[in-house]
RNA sequence: CGGGGAUUGGCGCAGUUGGCUAGCGCGCCGCGUUUGGGACGCGGAGGCCGGAGGUUCGAGUCCUCUAUCCCCGACCA
């Protein structure tokens, strides 16, 4: 993209109402716009990050054999009746409204019940199982208090996956594969080292659910991390008995703040029984469908990453999710500008995402914006090096300047992104 | 939902014990000089002071109500 065409401008001042680092940086750099507390729009740059995160998740979910679909945001009251979760006293974060005819509708805060309703008439035989679907959806949750920028919104983007299984073993097998896939997702967005599989409350369904918690000072949860085992325990289930059960020693655990970026649930047969979703097994016997559900907060993930990777100059995106790989600018007049135009076309033609700062402003401003936006590579076309066909290149994370010819430049900026799932790579 | 803080051009802020055409910085527009880390000069535009009601000769400033935002806590399937 040409920066002269971008609708946003970077800001020197942050709106005073934003305290969270993620919101400050994302707003200053032009990634998001606040509509109201807990509701943010994704501007062109922000949307690119969201889409890049989604692409990674999509690849990993597809590799599990799950199929993408898209459910509705409007939900019927009847759908939620069997489990009692339409009741505001049971679920206190509902947004609700009425149709013109007076019928109640809810705005989806989860799609567990709706997916079961959908499955009821479609999954009728053991031959239909196992099956898995996922979606990227806007969820609505009427939080009493929105906070922390995009980390706890009333409207947010979530990837939710639902898997139907014939029995507990089959469910567990998928559950464990998904756990691995989730770890790959967090690895690929750059949070691998600071994200832990965390034992958390399983609600009324199982003893535990598994959360994926990223260590960050702005996190809302307190967890106890065993760094060598790469496992953590949420404080909500932290006690001697459970530590013994998990084989963890109190002395190995470190208490840290963390943000929940993913959560996976094992519902067993309960949802199927509650919602009357049964199938006939090979003996013609009626059996409940086993359900498991898997969530990743996509927009929250962007916030956590922004919180996690930044410095005094601004954001620092991992190459896999950055809105562009290269921030290109020319210093000088006609000659360097036309050389930069040419380089822009070459890079773009080679599939490199480029933010081309073609604005008529001084270099210092462009450097500052390149840093604030957090683009992995900064490429400068200048008179000094144009003669021998060299470009100046600098990584966002380093102060070292390199001078490379076109071939070397292309190689460098294309190499930083991974090319798909590690699963895919193995198959190749 | 309990407690605390805030609301004045697009953004950040100032505005004394109520007083005259509500200021400053950033940003924006025009002209010129500039061009390797957010340049400078000159000239401009832009404000129902969150909203409603009240006190007063006079309200950004005082009173009442209300809305919104932020933070701490509670909540978070």
Structure description:
This protein has 428 residues and is of the alpha+beta class. The protein has two domains: 7-311, 2-Layer Sandwich (BirA Bifunctional Protein, domain 2); 326-415, Rossmann fold (3-Layer(aba) Sandwich), CATH 3.40.50. The chain has 13 helices and 23 strands. The model is unreliable at 422-428 (pLDDT under 50). The structure holds one RNA strand of 77 nucleotides.
How are the elements arranged and paired?
Elements: H1 21-28, E1 32-36, E2 39-42, H2 44-63, E3 67-68, E4 74-76, H3 77-80, E5 95-98, E6 104-107, H4 112-120, E7 131-140, E8 155-165, H5 168-188, E9 195-201, E10 208-215, E11 221-226, E12 231-234, H6 240-246, E13 253-268, H7 270-274, E14 278-280, E15 286-288, E16 290-297, H8 298-308, E17 310-311, E18 314-315, E19 326-331, H9 334-349, E20 354-357, H10 363-373, E21 377-382, H11 383-386, E22 391-395, E23 401-404, H12 406-415, H13 422-427
Parallel strand pairs: 3-7, 9-12, 19-20, 19-21
Antiparallel strand pairs: 1-2, 4-6, 5-6, 7-8, 8-16, 9-10, 10-13, 11-12, 11-13, 13-16, 14-15, 17-18, 21-22, 22-23
The protein binds one RNA strand of 77 nucleotides through residues 9-19, 36-37, 85, 90-93, 110, 112, 141, 143-145, 147, 152, 201, 203-205, 209, 220, 260, 263, 265, 331-333, 361-369, 371-372, 380, 382, 384, 392.
């Amino acid at each position: 993209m040409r920066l002269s065409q971008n609708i946003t401008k970077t800001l020197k001042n942050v709106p005073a109402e934003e305290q969270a680092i993620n919101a400050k940086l994302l707003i200053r750099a032009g990634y998001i716009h606040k509509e109201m507390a807990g509701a943010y729009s994704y501007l062109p740059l922000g949307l690119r990050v969201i889409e890049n995160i989604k692409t990674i998740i999509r690849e990993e979910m597809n590799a599990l054999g799950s199929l993408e679909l898209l459910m509705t945001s409007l939900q019927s009251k009847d759908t939620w009746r069997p489990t009692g979760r339409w009741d505001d006293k049971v679920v206190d974060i509902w947004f609700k409204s009425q149709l013109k005819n007076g019928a109640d509708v809810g705005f989806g805060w989860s799609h567990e019940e709706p997916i079961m309703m959908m499955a009821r008439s479609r999954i009728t035989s053991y031959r239909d199982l196992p099956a898995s679907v996922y979606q990227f959806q806007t969820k609505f949750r009427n939080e009493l208090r929105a906070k922390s920028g995009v980390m706890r919104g009333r409207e947010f983007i979530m990837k939710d996956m639902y898997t139907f299984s014939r029995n507990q073993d089959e469910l567990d097998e998928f559950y464990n594969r998904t756990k691995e896939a989730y770890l790959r997702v967090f690895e690929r967005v750059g949070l691998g080292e600071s994200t832990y599989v965390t034992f958390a409350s399983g609600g009324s369904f199982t003893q535990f659910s598994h959360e994926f918690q990223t260590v960050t000072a702005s996190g809302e949860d307190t967890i106890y991390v065993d760094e060598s085992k790469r496992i953590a325990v949420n404080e909500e289930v932290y006690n001697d008995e459970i530590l013994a059960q998990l084989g963890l020693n109190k002395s190995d655990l470190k208490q840290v703040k963390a943000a929940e970026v993913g959560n996976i649930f094992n519902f067993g047969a309960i949802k199927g029984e509650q919602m009357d979703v049964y199938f006939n097994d090979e003996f013609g016997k009626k059996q409940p469908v086993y359900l498991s559900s898997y969530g990743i907060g996509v927009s929250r993930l962007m916030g956590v990453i922004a919180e996690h990777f930044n410095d005094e100059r601004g954001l620092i995106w991992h190459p896999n999710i950055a809105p562009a790989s290269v921030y290109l600018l020319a210093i000088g007049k006609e000659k360097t500008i036309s050389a930069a135009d040419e380089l822009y076309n070459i890079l773009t033609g080679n599939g490199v995402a480029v933010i081309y700062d073609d604005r008529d402003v001084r270099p210092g401003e462009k450097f500052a914006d390149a840093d604030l936006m957090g683009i992995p590579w900064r490429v400068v076309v200048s008179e000094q090096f144009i003669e021998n066909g060299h470009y100046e290149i600098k990584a966002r994370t380093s102060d070292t300047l390199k001078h490379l010819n076109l071939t070397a430049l292309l190689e460098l900026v294309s190499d930083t992104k991974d090319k798909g799932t590690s699963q895919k790579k193995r198959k190749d």
